Amino acid sequence: MLDLKYVRENPDAVRRAMELKKEAGDLEGLLKMDQQRRDLLKEVEDLKQTRNRVSKEIGKQGADSEGAQQKKEEMRAVSTKIKELDDQLRQIDIKMEHLLLSLPNIPDEVVPIGTDEEDNIEVRAWGDKPKFDFEPLAHWDIGEKLHILDFPRAGKISGSRFAVYFAAGARLERALINFMLDLHTVKHDYCEVFPPFLVNSASMTGTGQLPKFAEDAFKVEGSDLYLVPTAEVPVTNLHRDEILDDEQLPLYYAAYTACFRAEAGAHGRDTRGLIRQHQFNKVELVKFVRPEDSDDELEKLTRNAEEVLKLLGLPYRVMLMCSGDLGFAPAKKYDLEVWLPAANTYREISSCSNFTDFQARRAGIRYRPEQGKKAQFVHTLNGSGVAVGRTVAAILENFQQEDGTVVIPEALRPYCGGMERITAT
RNA sequence: GGAGAGAUGGCUGAGUUGGUCGAAGGCGCUCGCCUGGAAAGCGAGUAGAUGGGGCAAAACCCUGUCUCGAGGGUUCGAAUCCCUCUCUCUCCGCCA
Hints:
By secondary structure, this protein is of the alpha+beta class. It folds into two domains: 4-101, Serine-tRNA synthetase, tRNA binding domain (Helix Hairpins, Orthogonal Bundle), CATH 1.10.287.40; 117-422, Bira Bifunctional Protein, Domain 2 (BirA Bifunctional Protein, domain 2). It is 40% helix and 20% strand. A hairpin with a 7-residue loop joins strand 13 (365-368) and strand 14. The structure holds one RNA strand.
């Protein structure tokens, strides 16, 4: 959510952000309503002042005295008027809140102008793509041949876009979660969090999943609870409506959760394999930082996520999102894309964003820079560190051997009980 | 699921015959005195949000409105009375 005052004073910047991000929103309506609201507020506050003053007088002179009767009579009318105006004000507030929530964050000045992923810029690439003397298989074929992935049975017990992992597959998934958490908590100094997987609508609104993206989430029928689409939601909301101490900052959190996504509007895309599931595992990195540090913190966060892929030996590239591919809330975003040989393409495996104060304002997350000074909104950042299912896919495809086995990256072996290679069972 | 108790400022804790209560006291914190320095002691200050004015702006000052878990209601006036909801605690039942 943008600052209303900022919108009022910089309508052109907001208009430009909307164009760049291809977001529709009723800026003009908002500005008009804002003026209306201010006029109305002035009027009703004056009336309240009168009422407060006269009520105090009534108390002083005694409620039963002669003059008091007359004053009560007058104030009855004033109170009725106040109620009317307050009602109008409430209506306007609700509408304005809605309009304000539909305005996207202002892109950082370094964000390249562009319309879609074609215009994203490759910032750097790492690792050598593997060369095969045979036709590399897709990970779902490898997984089924090794009896570690089972999509038909997942379809039976749940439906499409689910997977069952068996044996070394399940072990690999679990090993990756532990490997990533250990890396980020021990080496990168994040605090491990294990949050609820169900969150209420206030939390979903705080991080921006609601109201705009309601159809992407799974809602528990007959309750106010949603399955978390990412750990970003519970972890960012940890500090919702809080004022943090300056010394607490920066706060780094690393959280493993399962993630649940309805994937509405993705019919026919990535229907096979682990790439696009209704349920997947992810280790998420979340930061709360001082505004002046958020630029550097995004770079560090991105490097932390890259470290996972480096240690696993997975080739990847880092993409700077252009304005058209940036999305609604981030001011700046890097995607990490891992190499998938079978598809002969890079696929997103992590997304690292700086939301500046956009989320913090919406979620009411502030800090006090100096004792006795005004509280300011923090800057929030988050990034996958990284998506586990897609990492399994990348490991299977990049480290597959001609004999059908898969070599487990060295860094992961301690987490797999020393297993060096996945063979068919 | 049943019965009961509660939710007040950074924390603790008064305030429940509706008016001088945005809120006592204590703790903590800040500043000052004291001290070689510290502790103790003494004195002063100390909730948040938002609007307007002093002003070009910051600091600062003056001032309006709102906020005592959330939302509604009664009343000239609500922390205080009524209703709904949320959360916390205790006991019982059930359960991994």
